[in-house]
Specification:
Helices cover 45% and strands 15% of the residues. By secondary structure, the chain is α+β, with helices and mostly antiparallel strands. It has a 5-stranded antiparallel sheet with strand order 1-7-2-5-8. Strands 4-3-6 form a 3-stranded antiparallel sheet, with no helix packed on it.
Length: 278
């Protein structure tokens, strides 16, 4: 995909490749927000510009997550060898009026400096990427995308700046989302911040809510799920231990062996000898 920095001509939505800086001064005002949608293994890092009058904020985001930050934020890539994804700049002052009319509410404030697991916006980002790659994106289509982004953001996140901590407990449906994500991404380097973003909570609030719901901290649950999967693989095949470690999310065989022994009481090799079923 050719790397360029084309923007839509509309005043409410501007689309940029994630590898290109949003340098337009008009987009840096408080009326704009940025929706960062990285793809593949691209990781974006957003932070407050040092020396500004605003409190220092920072976050990192990679697929399958998206992030919403103020337009004044500085966005750079952590691994820029093959950057993919888009940054959608939204004129929030204008789009808030659209959301208010459509939803019949005046409570359309948008919290910033958060990341979330949002498959809908990721699909929208894929479509925008295709449009952005064309020589002349249809203005009417981009205008519709601006409204869709605004309505979705307000409906899901826009109740109040502290909405991600509004819930006092982790409901069964939210817990199911977390468990499903862990099972589908067990091989990845899952952070507590990622799990908290699934249910739009701060990491500290999520950790407390998860322990209240399950009786265990999220890191314990994640590790035990990895160990259970490793036990299944060990008992059903002869895959090398270094490959099993990678399959269940451990970066080294040594770390995998140490954790497995701590949780199971024996090494992976000894477990395989005792439980292997050809």
């Amino acid at each position: 995909m050719e790397q360029s920095n084309r923007s839509s001509p509309l005043q409410c939505l501007s689309c940029h490749w994630i590898s290109a800086s949003v340098t337009d001064c008009a987009l840096k005002s408080a009326q704009w927000i940025l929706c960062i949608i990285p793809a593949d293994r691209t990781t974006a890092y957003a932070s407050t510009v040092r020396g500004s009058v605003h409190p220092y904020q920072q976050l990192s985001v990679s697929a399958p997550f998206i992030a919403v930050v103020p337009a004044r934020a500085r966005v750079k890539l952590v691994n820029d060898d093959d950057p993919r994804g888009v940054i959608v700049a939204l004129h929030w002052a204008r789009l808030r009026e659209t959301a208010q009319r459509a939803l019949g509410t005046t409570d359309c404030e948008m919290p910033c400096w958060f990341k979330a697991w949002d498959p809908f916006l990721r699909e929208a980002g894929d479509t925008l990427t295709a449009l952005h790659a064309s020589s002349s994106p249809d203005p009417g289509c981009l205008d519709a995308f601006a409204d869709v982004f605004a309505l979705h953001l307000v409906h899901r996140y826009g109740h109040a700046a502290d909405t991600r901590d509004a819930a006092t407990r982790l409901t069964h449906s939210k817990l199911s989302v977390v468990e499903r994500f862990i099972h589908e991404h067990i091989v990845d380097n899952i952070q507590i911040e990622d799990l908290a973003a699934l249910v739009h909570m701060s990491p500290s609030h999520f950790a407390r809510a998860f322990k209240n719901a399950t009786g265990h901290p999220p890191h314990f649950y994640l590790t035990t799920e990895r160990v259970k999967l490793a036990q299944s693989i060990l008992s059903e095949g002869s895959l090398p231990l270094i490959d099993i470690a990678a399959c269940v999310g451990f970066r080294t065989q040594q770390h995998f062996t140490a954790v497995f022994h701590r949780y199971v009481g024996c090494t992976p090799r000894a477990f395989r000898i005792a439980h292997y079923r050809p």
